[in-house]
Amino acid sequence: MKRNAVNKLIEWKESGTTVPFLLHGTKGVGKTYLAIEFANAYYPQYLYVNFELNKAARDFFEEKAATDDTVSEIFAEYFQLDEVYLTGLIVILDEISFCPLFFNRLAVECNSPVIAISGGVLEREKLNRFSCCRVFPLGFDEFLSAVGSDWYVEIIQGHFLNAKPMPDIVHQELLALFEEYLVVGGMPAAINEYIASKSVYNVGEVHSLVTARMKSVLEETCDEKTLGMAVQVLDVLPKQLKKANKRFRFNLIRKGVTYALYKDSIEALVKCGMVLKLDEQKGNPSQFKLYFPDVGMMSSAYMGEESEHIRKALLENYVMQTLETNEVFQLCFWESEAQAKVDFVLRKEDKETAVELRTSTSGKAKSIASYQTFNQCEGQKYYRFGFENFYSTSVIMQVPYYAVFCVK
């Protein structure tokens, strides 16, 4: 599967830096696959060790980390190579978080090309010591490449840039593929199942396995109380997103529950990648929305159940996932006291752009008008994401859902 993140790995290699590269992200997003594919393409050979699965390796590296041996000497001894050969190879250290002592030394002393991988929760201070890339589930553009339709990606990008409508037959084909993506999502294992079976019938089972792997990270990093509350949040998330207003409501867990009580659990879920969190524009910490990390996982959570609110939730989740992956905007939502709602506001530098989501081809943007009046930006151009073809006016840029990945 072609991943956009490989471009960052290529830049790292070409820079000639000795700073190790760190791939991090929740379980199941394809970090190991990406590292190995890159190593096969750009190095004559790679050396690999998984610290989560290989206890002997974990013990060896942790013991050596407390000695005066250099990182290169430790590699040479473990892989039984002369140190001189390491400079032409690349070392892949999977689940490096299981070796905290060696992890700390790696960023300071390493002279060999190294890709470290972590599916655990990492503090910002540690991330700043590496060349980093957060790996997400595959976006719709990557999904197109995975299913052999990568030629569509360049066409979509071209029509986005000039805001000209797609030929109708191509537009309809892309909408059909988009509907498949809403079910399959971007988890590599689910996409592999979809490709192999040529159907979506078994992807729900794959999503269940991926969810279990994600929960294992939560169990390893949280105390019993935080874990229990985090599970409660996850359990009510499908019910939350079925509501007309997707803002998280604690009374669905039980009456009397407050944000202060669940704050740590929600932060733990965000850090380990089990939820995506969207804050309110006004900055009230208790007002937020939570989404699934992958739209396919959300679709499987409803097990074929359909409603207008679920349909809206799937589209919101897809947009949140896509914009979060782009890592370009600060995202928030806006609500007025008169119940006007703007699902997404894209903040970049000092500019904010509103987004209207359409579930049909009709309707008036009353909430956008309320938002612009409240924020004193009447007439400002905004995005409309929907099922209509591309078009642009002085105030609207209509973007089909399949092209949201172009918004940067």
Notable features of this structure?
single chain; 408 residues; Rossmann fold; 2 domains; 5-stranded parallel sheet; 16 helices; globular
How would you portray this structure in words?
- With 408 residues, the chain is of the alpha/beta class.
- It folds into two domains: 6-134, 3-Layer(aba) Sandwich (Rossmann fold), CATH 3.40.50; 140-406, no CATH class.
- 46% of the residues lie in helices and 16% in strands.
- It has 16 helices and 13 strands.
- It has helices at 6-15, 31-42, 55-65, 71-79, 100-109, 124-127, 140-146, 151-162, 168-184, 188-197, 203-221, 224-241, 259-271, 295-301, 308-326, 366-374; strands spanning 21-24, 46-50, 90-94, 114-118, 131-134, 276-280, 288-291, 330-335, 341-348, 351-357, 382-386, 391-392, 396-400.
- It has an eight-stranded mixed sheet with strand order 7-6-8-9-10-11-13-12. A five-stranded parallel sheet has the order 2-3-4-1-5, covered by helices on one side.
- The protein is globular.
Helix and strand topology:
Elements: H1 6-15, E1 21-24, H2 31-42, E2 46-50, H3 55-65, H4 71-79, E3 90-94, H5 100-109, E4 114-118, H6 124-127, E5 131-134, H7 140-146, H8 151-162, H9 168-184, H10 188-197, H11 203-221, H12 224-241, H13 259-271, E6 276-280, E7 288-291, H14 295-301, H15 308-326, E8 330-335, E9 341-348, E10 351-357, H16 366-374, E11 382-386, E12 391-392, E13 396-400
Parallel strand pairs: 1-4, 1-5, 2-3, 3-4, 6-8, 10-11, 11-13
Antiparallel strand pairs: 6-7, 8-9, 9-10, 12-13
Helix pairs in contact: 3-5, 9-14, 10-11, 11-14, 12-13
